[in-house]
Specification:
- By secondary structure, the protein is an alpha+beta fold.
- 53% of the residues lie in helices and 13% in strands.
- It has a 4-stranded mixed β-sheet with strand order 1-3-4-7, covered by helices on one side.
- Helix 8 runs antiparallel to helix 9 and helix 9 packs antiparallel against helix 10.
- The longest helix is centred in the middle third of the chain and has 33 residues.
């Protein structure tokens, strides 16, 4: 497997970076924190027009036909710009139907998702733990009444890909059920999550994709997002160290500060390959994707929090204040570390998959 980005992948990432650099300003991100806004319709419209809402959907259904690697590169930029949008939920809903749906489901559901006219999301946690995929209770087919926790885009989604009993996946169209959503008031207000309840819901099975595979894909995207946030925190901290003066010189000139920044830079640059490897294996070697996804989620989100804590310390008294952007990225890294299981959970899973534990 090639572990370097292709020209096309570099263009995907740079194009999305340029869009967010122009449109996703600090003021725009802060709107999600300072108001009750949970979904930025204008930002969604721009992303849709550029085709990023259909990145993992086949061209025959209106998408770009790209893989999880490209989706991970998009997630990295979402994290780097603290974008107030959980695009990953929509991306994975399209991916799940593209890989696991019947031909009828694909023709009916994917064109609207690719165009961004319909909003999709994933509901993979029924207990709040998320990584325990065996705890799903929803039964495909028939009429269901259930509550699913920590659902991204839960208040605006038209379509839910749901973790079902026996490790299966199912798809629920909101217009065919009584759906209600309650904001969980998570720490990262740029990506609101919801407790979603539905009644009299007919959940159609997605027969050709195991539920755990979609869970692994989400772990990779969370790791990529955390990497982007950590990389941006490092940039902010270096910029601050060059301008903040103490004892008549910039603090970046002090050896202790240099060493700390160098350690954080080394931790960041060596972590990037983990989510590249996990995403590439999902696309090309799915039999080994489970362990790589768990390793990427565990290590990158752990390192992201380490860098976030260091950024707060090196910014001194302003680092933890509401006015500083550092707190926004700190909360984003904390969300990525916790959502769908902490690093400890995924390290234990790596050990199990490696045959080291029973």
């Amino acid at each position: 497997m090639d572990y370097w980005l292709t020209e096309q992948q570099q263009l995907v990432q740079s194009g999305f970076h340029d869009f967010l650099a122009s449109e996703c300003t600090s003021a725009r991100v802060r709107t999600a924190y300072d108001t009750d806004l949970t979904f930025d319709e204008d930002l969604w419209s721009g992303i849709s027009q550029l085709g990023f809402t259909g990145i993992c959907i086949p061209p025959g259904q209106g998408g770009s036909g790209l893989g999880l690697m490209e989706a991970a590169l998009v997630s990295e930029e979402l994290g780097r710009h603290a974008a107030p949008l959980f695009l990953e939920g929509h991306t994975l809903a399209g991916l799940a139907i593209a890989l696991g749906g019947t031909q009828s489901q694909k023709e009916r559901l994917l064109p609207g998702l690719a165009a961004g006219e319909r909003i999709g999301t994933v509901a993979l946690s029924s207990s709040g733990k998320g990584s325990a995929w065996c705890d799903w209770q929803v039964e495909p087919g028939g009429s269901n009444a259930a509550t699913v926790e920590t659902v991204p885009l839960g208040d605006v989604a038209d379509l839910f890909v749901i973790g079902c009993a026996n490790g299966e996946l199912g798809v629920l169209e909101a217009e065919r059920a009584n759906v209600s959503a309650s904001n969980c008031q998570g720490i990262d207000r740029s990506r609101s999550i919801f407790e979603v309840s539905f009644d009299e819901a007919a959940v159609e099975a997605l027969p050709d994709l195991p539920g755990q595979a979609l869970g692994h894909a989400l772990l990779v995207l969370l790791a990529a997002d955390a990497f982007g946030a950590a990389d941006r925190l490092l940039e902010l901290t270096v910029e601050y160290a060059k301008t903040r003066e103490q004892f008549g010189q910039p603090i970046g000139g002090f050896q202790a500060v240099k060493h700390q920044l160098a350690e954080h830079a080394l931790a960041a640059v060596t972590a990037r390959g983990l989510f590249w490897k996990a995403a590439g294996e999902f696309d090309e070697q799915p039999e080994s994707a489970a362990k790589s996804a768990a390793m990427a989620k565990a290590h990158i989100t752990d390192q992201a929090m380490r860098i976030a804590r260091g950024a707060v310390e090196l910014h001194g008294g302003i680092g933890f204040t509401w006015e500083s952007d550092v707190q926004i990225y700190f909360k984003r890294a904390l969300f990525d570390r916790t959502y769908l299981g902490t690093p400890q959970i995924h390290r234990e899973r790596c050990a199990q998959l490696s045959g080291w534990t029973q």
